[in-house]
Amino acid sequence: MHKPVGLLCPSTRGPSSPAVLRFIAKPCAINLGIQDSGPHRAQPNAILEKVFTSITKSPDGKRLEGLSKQLDWDVRKIQRWFRHRRNQDKPTTLTKFCESMWRFTFYLSIFFYGIRFLWTAPWFWDTRQCWYNYPFQPLTSRLYYYYILELAFYWSLMFSQFTDIKRKDFLIMFVHHLATIGLITFSYMNNMVRVGTLVLCLHDASDFLLEAAKLANYAKYQRLCDAFFMLFGVVFIVTRLGIYPFWILNTTLFESWELIGPYPSWWLFNGLLVTLQVLHVIWSYLIIRTASKALVRGK
């Protein structure tokens, strides 16, 4: 598949997140009273540091007793040291606020870019247009840039996982980013970009609301956080359990079969999209469970 005629290949680097962090996110956080103060730092100790980095971050009772005798420290003091040391690796609230601000800025911008682009696209109003003349469909510059921006962003997220502080959800997010990159690349290589833009825009519809809820939470605006989270939950469930299967899967499974038949990559492409629907069901369940638990506790 070729780039649009006359279009120079842009850099695959995403939008410059450091600029957003430095000139927008950090001043906003400071104005909201979010300080750059990290957790209490553990007292320097070479023996405990070696155990922490080489053996275990959460020693059991037997190891604690041995360290207590070796250092002549109380067991509680050693437990407290390991707790403080674990907390040192956690990002500060300011860091998390800036990360969410960067993601919020991108998700909101790319969503409205996608809506503006698709509003004039015939396949947005009639999904059968995704398959007319397939695979000999022109690739416009606006469609090309839409795909490249999304692809560059997810590459940046995956690479940043190795430079940022390691989180508990490292593995699952790595798999998620890898699968997303694979789907975007696969649809681009097979010129399925029309239906691909519908999938991208649909998924971007709820992401910026979750980041907005995080921002409100870090700034300690609890009512605003709850409102954004509930709105996120509603939009997520409507788009992923309603629009996605009856709009996206309907055209990739049935309309494509009717118009062009089972093309060679039909089975793999739809298999991935159906797998994505399974994940939507699981995530929707988790969202509903989280909201229900909060309501039961009166929060």
Describe this structure in words.
The protein has 299 residues and is mainly alpha-helical. Helices cover 73% and strands 0% of the residues. It contains eleven helices and no strands.
SS element count, helices: 11
Helix percent band: over 70%
User: How many β-strand runs?
Assistant: 0
Structural class: mainly alpha
Low-confidence stretches: 1-16
Radius of gyration: 24 Å
Report the average pLDDT across residues: 83
Overall morphology: elongated
H-E string: HHHHHHHHHHH
Question: What is the rounded distance between the termini?
Answer: 52 Å
Query: Percent of residues in beta strands?
Result: under 5%
Largest sheet: none
How are the SSEs ordered, and which strands pair?
Elements: H1 17-31, H2 46-54, H3 61-71, H4 75-88, H5 93-119, H6 122-125, H7 141-163, H8 170-189, H9 193-218, H10 222-260, H11 266-296
Helix pairs in contact: 1-5, 5-7, 5-9, 7-8, 7-9, 9-10, 10-11
Short description:
Helices cover 73% and strands 0% of the residues. The protein has 299 residues and is mainly α.
Q: What are its keywords?
A:
single chain; 299 residues; mainly alpha; 73% helix; elongated; disordered N terminus
